[in-house]
């Protein structure tokens, strides 16, 4: 079991799924959840490569915090196909304070386990992770 | 996409007892003036096209074009001068902290290399002249002990600077580097304005003692004066030379502007008096003037700009007006053609016509401040900062009799049931008051702090928003309210509630920058996540076909959402009004009119994607 210093362990499955997303492109997104009782970060949901950004936003709960990784494909100004791996710390204003605290303190250690994240983003309401925000951070 | 179609500009901000200085550019036929923190550039031949420069952090006082027309130097009350380009989105060239107090006048040297600025400050720093690009001082300007109201640069070589001020002195400096040469104390009151003639041969100073004195430009000696027969009967606030240096225009507190002909022996004789065509109150005192090419522009204390033609002085002037202060509400009169009414807190109601602009002021028999305004076919209901609600009938263009209703508490918000305009809902601190006609039918204490309200057009339902973000829906039966439901979604005090024109939906906005669209019948949320503003939402408007809802906020943006699409596909208008957007109304499916703190009203053309 990989360890996290803040007391929250990271389940091996998280790292495996992330490597699959990075190397083999078998997932569009991964949503991680902290299971308080088991004190670890586990994979909650995985998205097919055919799904798009709207499917991803729909899979995030409105009132609870999550961590998410999204593989964003776009075309640059010079007409090259590029992709960026986004790490999104979803911490909505309407969630409970305890939840926000736990996710915030464990985030750093967890991110370090996932090697290869290119852009990090924190969203406190749906407008902060809108498609236009993602596009502007992508280049 | 939303594009700016028209701007109904604000007017220069004026102060009783002081003149204002407007300037212009003869090449682009534009005039420059300041209102609040903005510098307004207005084109005399295209009054609906206005450019606004809003980069000053303090209220701006005066702005001038450089002689080559490429740069504008503008100054504000903190003593800062900003030099920016006229083209290319007003890119800033340099900013200098010139004086330690407010700057009252600013002039470029004719070669565009030096700028002289005068104003208020301490000791020596009442006037400063500096190089425009480096800011290095080019002279010592002692000789004044009080605020220097105006300064002028001789337009031909050898260069001279003349300054005048509240210490009744007119000082003459030679240079560069500028040194004090001599001073005149012939005025017996504040000297308000001093200007060189365009050919550089003379300069005139005018003051609050109603006198105008003519001096020789090279030596600074007095050579003549403006004749006192048929002269002004009030303080003269501003003076402007004609381009041929033979005539001058003066603007005075006696509500008239006079054109003087300067004869060979340097005596000025009145050639023509232009009286201000107004109702004759204090607002008609003229505080500024400008003679540019063929145009004569005078500005009154009430902010009205009169445009005369110099070649045809008997023609009635074109008058342009607008608001001087924050326009807090907008309403649409459904008459043909559609007239937009805008009101500001100082009690001014102005009528505008889309496509033409200023249409007239609504002459009200009672001038009281206005906080809330509601308009229906032939009636205006307004409330101010006292305990009264005024109902004024509109007869055509003028206001009829005003009925005043004392409701016993300060009204916070005012709503009319559009289909039965007799019924009005007025919210006070902890409750609501129902009015029918001019009678208070009931005062209901609701027990919570009320912040916003709306009443359905048929008068059967009312929604009241409270400080804690809850929306209370009441049904109105007779004279009582029965609570039907309490809706909780907002996380801040409710600031505005509006029903859609077909009454199937209503939209509410709060102080926590969120707006929500609800369905009336089921009271369910119809459109959420309208969180794209970054500050309190001030106003909401529905389009006539119920498809779009627009929200205006303190963060100066207007966001237009389509009710059938998710909130993320929105149209944003950034920077619509410096200081915040306070009024919004749709005139038809594609035109949105907005008003804000900068006293301007803008018309936007909205095309859904």
Automatic annotation (TrEMBL), chain A:
GO CC entries: actin cytoskeleton
Keywords recorded for this protein, A-Z: Actin-binding
PROSITE patterns recorded: ADF_H (PS51263)
UniProt GO BP: actin filament depolymerization
SUPFAM superfamilies registered for this protein in UniProt: Actin depolymerizing proteins
Residue ranges occupied by any ADF-H domain in the UniProt entry: 5-139
GO molecular function: actin binding
Pfam family, one: Cofilin_ADF
InterPro entries in UniProt: ADF-H, ADF-H/Gelsolin-like_dom_sf, ADF/Cofilin
Chain coiled-coil ranges: none
Annotated SMART domains: ADF
Family: Belongs to the actin-binding proteins ADF family.
Protein name in UniProt: Actin-depolymerizing factor 1 isoform X2
Species per Swiss-Prot/TrEMBL record: Sesamum indicum (Oriental sesame)
Lineage of the organism: Eukaryota, Viridiplantae, Streptophyta, Embryophyta, Tracheophyta
From TrEMBL, chain B:
The entry's keywords: Actin-binding, Repeat, WD repeat
GO MF annotation list: actin filament binding
Protein name stated in the entry: Actin-interacting protein 1-2
Matches recorded under Pfam families: WD40
Gene3D superfamilies according to UniProt: YVTN repeat-like/Quinoprotein amine dehydrogenase (2.130.10.10)
UniProt superkingdom: Eukaryota
Gene: LOC105158063
InterPro entries named among the record's database cross-references: Quinoprotein_ADH-like_sf (IPR011047), WD40/YVTN_repeat-like_dom_sf (IPR015943), WD40_repeat_CS (IPR019775), WD40_repeat_dom_sf (IPR036322), WD40_rpt (IPR001680)
WD repeat spans: 53-94, 184-225, 229-270, 487-519, 530-571, 574-609
UniProt cross-references to SMART domains, sorted A to Z: WD40
GO biological process entries: actin filament depolymerization
């Amino acid at each position: 079991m990989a360890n996290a210093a803040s007391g929250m362990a990271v389940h091996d499955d998280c790292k495996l799924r992330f490597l699959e997303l990075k190397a083999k492109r078998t997932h569009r997104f991964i949503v991680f959840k902290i299971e308080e009782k088991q004190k670890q970060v586990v994979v909650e949901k995985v998205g097919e490569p055919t799904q798009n950004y709207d499917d991803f936003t729909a899979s995030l709960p409105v009132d609870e915090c999550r961590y998410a990784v999204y593989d964003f494909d776009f075309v640059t100004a010079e007409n090259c196909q590029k992709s960026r791996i986004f790490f999104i710390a979803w911490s909505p204003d309407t969630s409970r304070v305890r939840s926000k605290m736990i996710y915030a303190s464990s985030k750093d250690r967890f991110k370090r386990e996932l090697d290869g994240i290119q852009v990090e983003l924190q969203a406190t309401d749906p407008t902060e992770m809108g498609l236009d925000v993602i596009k502007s951070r992508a280049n | 996409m939303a594009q700016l179609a028209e701007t109904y500009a604000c007017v220069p901000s004026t102060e009783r007892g002081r003149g204002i200085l407007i300037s212009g550019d003869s090449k682009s036929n534009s005039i420059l003036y300041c209102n609040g923190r903005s510098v307004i550039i207005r084109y005399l031949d295209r009054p609906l096209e206005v450019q606004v420069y809003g980069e000053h952090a303090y209220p701006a006082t005066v702005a001038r074009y450089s002689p080559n027309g490429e740069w504008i130097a503008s100054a504000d009350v903190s003593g800062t001068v900003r030099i920016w380009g006229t083209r290319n989105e007003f890119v800033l060239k340099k900013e200098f902290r010139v004086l330690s107090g407010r700057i009252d006048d600013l002039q470029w040297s004719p070669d565009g290399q030096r700028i002289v600025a005068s104003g208020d400050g301490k000791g020596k720093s009442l006037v400063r002249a500096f190089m425009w690009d480096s800011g290095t001082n080019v002279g010592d300007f002692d000789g004044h002990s009080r605020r220097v109201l105006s300064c002028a640069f001789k337009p031909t070589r050898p260069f001279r600077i003349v300054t005048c001020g509240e210490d009744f002195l007119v000082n003459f400096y030679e240079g560069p580097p500028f040194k004090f040469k001599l001073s005149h104390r012939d005025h017996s009151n504040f000297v308000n304005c001093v200007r060189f003639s365009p050919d550089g041969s003379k300069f005139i100073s005018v003051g609050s003692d109603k006198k105008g004195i003519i001096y020789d430009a090279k030596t600074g000696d007095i050579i003549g004066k403006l004749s006192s027969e048929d002269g002004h009967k009030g303080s003269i606030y501003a003076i402007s030379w004609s381009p041929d240096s033979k005539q001058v225009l003066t603007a005075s507190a006696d509500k008239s502007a006079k054109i003087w002909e300067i004869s060979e022996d340097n005596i000025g004789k009145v050639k023509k008096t232009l009286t201000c065509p107004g109702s004759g109150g204090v607002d008609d005192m003229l505080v500024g003037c400008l003679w540019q090419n063929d145009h004569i522009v005078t500005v009154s204390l009430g902010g009205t700009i009169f445009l005369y033609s110099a070649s045809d002085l008997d023609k009635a002037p074109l008058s342009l007006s607008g608001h001087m202060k924050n326009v807090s509400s907008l309403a649409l009169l459904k008459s043909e053609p559609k007239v937009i009414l805008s009101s500001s807190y100082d009690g001014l109601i102005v009528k505008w016509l889309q496509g033409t602009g200023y249409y007239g002021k609504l002459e009200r028999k009672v001038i009281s401040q206005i906080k809330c305004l509601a308009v229906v076919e032939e009636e205006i209901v307004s409330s101010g900062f006292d305990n009264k609600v005024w109902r004024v009938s509109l007869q055509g263009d003028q206001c009829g009799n005003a009925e005043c209703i004392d409701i016993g508490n300060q009204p916070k918000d005012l709503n009319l049931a559009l289909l039965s305009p007799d019924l009005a809902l007025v919210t006070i601190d902890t409750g609501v008051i129902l009015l029918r006609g001019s009678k208070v039918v009931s005062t209901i204490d609701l027990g919570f702090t009320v912040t916003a309200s709306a009443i359905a057009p048929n008068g059967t339902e009312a929604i009241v928003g409270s400080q804690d973000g809850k929306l209370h829906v009441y049904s109105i039966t007779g004279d009582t309210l029965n609570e039907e439901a309490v809706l909780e979604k907002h996380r801040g005090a409710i600031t505005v509630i509006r029903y859609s024109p077909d009454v199937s939906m209503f939209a509410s906005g709060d102080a926590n920058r969120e707006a929500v669209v609800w369905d009336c019948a089921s009271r369910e949320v119809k459109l959420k996540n309208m969180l794209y503003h970054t500050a309190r939402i001030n106003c909401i408007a529905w389009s006539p076909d119920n498809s779009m809802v627009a929200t205006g906020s303190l963060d100066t943006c207007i966001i237009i959402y389509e009710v059938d699409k998710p909130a993320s596909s929105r149209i944003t208008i950034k920077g619509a009004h410096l200081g915040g957007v306070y009024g919004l109304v749709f005139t038809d499916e594609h035109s949105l009119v907005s008003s804000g703190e900068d006293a301007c009203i803008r018309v936007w053309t909205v095309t859904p994607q």
